[in-house]
Specification:
elongated; six-stranded parallel beta sheet; alpha/beta; Rossmann fold; 6 strands; 230 residues; 12% strand; 2 domains; binds magnesium ion
Length: 230
């Protein structure tokens, strides 16, 4: 049996949320908003409101010449380019590939944005990359999105792993199609009623550590009698 792992992208393989902070820091630098200005931007980023509201408040506070929609467009243009893989991601993915794993990405978001966040080096390490935009690929947690990524990677969902930071999109979705799940909690605890992950880790590095022994077992399996493999 071939080992197969599917990864979420945002805040699983790449630091999308950290990159938002880098964009605010860049904006504060370019427009000379000072430390106090950056502090205001960061506080605004933390406020649980719609992005449109965040950009409206920022434009108003600093008197920018752009409209809120124009500032938001500048963010969407620049932010994906500031996203980087977490440390060790590229190396660990190479180790898994070397151990015979099939690997895929299943991410919610338009390909035009998500592909920029991945970059060529990361994208080149997967057998399949599925950009779920609700049209050709249904959005996670739709079970069909998981079936589709397995088909595209020429792999089976049975015994496969899903690694992600969302209990709703990644853990609940993958559990519904019988996958094993690793939740990257970032130190959070599931709230009552939320999906229950198979394994919980704080960082993606720990997720790789859980998977790699599986790969090592897969490497040894040809030396065992055929019937012992399952
Ligand atoms: Mg995510």
């Amino acid at each position: 049996m071939v080992n197969f792992a599917v990864f979420d992208l945002d805040d699983t393989l790449v630091d999308s949320t950290d990159a938002i902070d880098r964009w605010f820091a860049e904006l504060a630098g370019q427009r000379e908003l000072g430390a106090e200005g950056l502090e205001f931007l960061r506080a605004e980023q933390q406020r649980p409101v719609a992005p449109r509201e965040t950009f409206r408040v920022i434009v108003e506070r600093f008197g920018f010449s752009e409209s809120p929609a124009e500032l938001q467009a500048l963010f969407w243009e620049r932010w994906p380019r500031l996203v980087r893989p977490f440390g060790g991601v590229i190396e660990h993915l190479r180790l898994l590939r070397g151990a015979g794993w099939r690997l895929a990405v299943l991410t919610n978001g338009p390909e035009s944005v998500q592909r920029l966040k991945m970059g060529d080096e990361l994208a080149g390490l997967f057998d399949a990359v599925c950009f779920a935009d609700g049209t050709q690929v249904p959005l996670k947690p739709d079970p069909e999105s998981f079936r589709l990524v397995a088909r595209r990677a020429a792999a089976e969902l049975e015994g496969a792993w899903m690694v992600g930071d969302s209990l709703v999109h990644d853990v609940a979705g993958a559990t519904a199609v019988g996958m094993e799940t690793i939740w990257i909690s970032g130190g959070r605890k599931p709230a009552p009623g939320e999906a229950v992950p198979g394994r919980v880790v704080a960082t993606v590095t720990e997720a790789f550590r859980l998977l790699l022994p599986e790969g090592a077992r897969g490497l040894r399996s040809p030396q065992r009698p055929e019937h012992a493999d399952r």
